Amino acid sequence: MRKSSFDSRVFYKSVLALVLPMAVQNLINVGISSLDVIMLGKVGETVLSASSLANQIQFIMTMIFFGVTSGACVLTAQYWGKGDRRTIEKVMGIALRISLTTGILFTLAVLFFPAPLMSLFTNEPDVIAEGVKYLQIVGYSYLFMSITMVYLNIMRSVEKVIISTVVYSVSLVTNGVLNAIFIFGLLGLPAMGISGAALATSIARLVELIIVLVYAYRPGQPVRLRFSDIFTRDPQLFRDFLRYSIPVTLNEMMWGGGVSMITAIIGHMGQSAVAANSVAQVTRQLATVVAFGIANATAIMIGKAIGEGSEDKAEDFGRRFVWLTVIAGVVGGIVVLIVSPIASSTLTLTGQAREYLTFMMFVMSYFVIGQAFNTTMVVGVFRAGGDTKFGLLEDTIAMWGISILVGFLGAFVFGWSVQAVYVVLLSDEIIKIPVNWWRYKTKIWLRNVTR
Question: What is the DSSP string of 379-419?
């Protein structure tokens, strides 16, 4: 295929316009998670571990949301390039139908079965009891997220990224202020501890939804939010949606379930390991804010180029994004190494937890390089061209069939140390690098899926 003549300056300008606000959004989301870790870390290791484990349930739910919207964005990005806005609105309606149903089911689950759900991640009674308090309050926020996440993610696919920055910026400030007030009992209120963190998060999520609804119904929006589209019947479009969203949703569930399984394995190896891992995971999120922004920008720009019929441009974009994501991954690894001693000296952790944290941060420093590359390949390049099944197969084999299986056996059959188990559990991203590189070079992903 001939080399694209696309102007490099135009490319990098477009990338910056997309990546910068999305990186800020990712950073803000990490900030929201970090606020709970920092403030609850000041209260004690038990509540820190409890909130970390309780949030694994929300994490699984958000992976479903992300899978549904990623599948939707395969279509919306290409239809955006084609200029078909009405079809994008219908796709959004289908996505909302699924996300709202999912949000309701998860809310009912955490309200009625919080203790059994917590016991999946830990066998320590004190941690379970604190996690139950958290879930019975934060569960209501799942309904708000089921609308907000779908709308904002689809807006990203049509290059409307600033609204997400605004929404999450307000959410960060709201959550931070309310966290301090409710957790520690400021302004004359009683100190609520972990319950205060849950209440602050729920209020912040409600504020997010209100801003989204106000923005969505402003006049002049290129793509309108129509709740009536939730019930619109378009059999052909629905089949296309399922064709691309089901593999992606299953992929995200497999990946999200895998991350939760890793947390559960660590959760049964002691409270100190849980506390250290919760800090390491927040640091990972911090280190990958730019890399994940690049992955999302990759999906948007390649999808739009394919929808316009410019496959040579899409191929050129893919080549450029490969190098950008490698650079972002290396920078992220350096960030992890810088944060490690700061976190260890700041948080209220036991000596054992500090030892675990130092080791986990070292592992995380190279893990984020692999995750940056693999995310851009699977979520960005492959899905943009409708290649949605490969990631599902890859995670099933590399994550579940190798790293989790061997890690589980190491933890509960062979009696390996926490450090050895951790290395194995986080090995899947390294395993996937050569596989994704091969898939990228085949160009199987370069397909137009619009009608």
Answer: IIIIHHTT--HHHHHHHIIIIIIIIIHHHHHHHHTS---HH
pLDDT tens, position by position, for the chain (451 residues)? Answer: 444 455 778 888 888 888 888 888 778 877 776 777 778 877 777 888 888 888 888 888 988 888 888 888 888 888 888 888 888 889 899 999 999 999 999 999 999 999 999 998 888 888 899 999 999 999 999 999 999 999 998 888 888 888 988 998 899 899 889 989 998 888 888 888 889 989 999 999 999 999 999 998 888 888 888 888 888 888 888 888 888 888 888 888 888 888 888 988 988 888 888 888 888 888 888 898 889 889 988 988 898 888 888 888 888 898 999 999 999 999 999 999 998 888 888 776 778 888 999 999 999 999 999 999 999 999 889 988 888 889 889 989 999 999 999 999 999 999 999 999 999 999 999 999 999 999 999 988 888 777 6
Cα(233)–Cα(385) distance, rounded to whole angstroms?
Answer: 25
Provide φ and ψ at 387, rounded to 5°.
-85, 80
Q: For residue 246, give the amino acid letter.
A: I
Q: How many residues does the chain have?
A: 451
Beta carbons of 318 and 373 less than 8 angstroms apart: no
CA pair distance 36, 207, nearest whole angstrom:
18
Please state, in angstroms and rounded to a whole number, the distance separating the CA atoms of residues 44 and 39: 9
| Burial zone of 370 (CB within 10 Å; 0-12 exposed, 13-18 middle, 19+ buried) | buried
| Cα–Cα nearest to 61, from 129, 122, 150 | 150
CA distance 425 to 400: 10
Q: What is the DSSP string of 241-266?
A: HHHHHHHHHHHHHHHHHHHHHHHHHH
Reduced DSSP (H G I as helix, E B as strand, rest coil) percent helix, strand, coil of the chain, to 5: 85, 0, 15
Q: Which helix (H) or strand (E) holds 51?
A: helix 45-82
Helix H, strand E, coil C: the string for 363-380 is HHHHHHHHHHHHHHHHHH
Q: How far apart are CA 193 and CA 126, in angstroms?
A: 14
Q: 161: which residues sit within 8 A by CB, 6+ positions away?
A: 17, 18, 21, 22, 25, 155
- Taking the alpha carbons at both ends of the chain, their separation in whole angstroms is 24
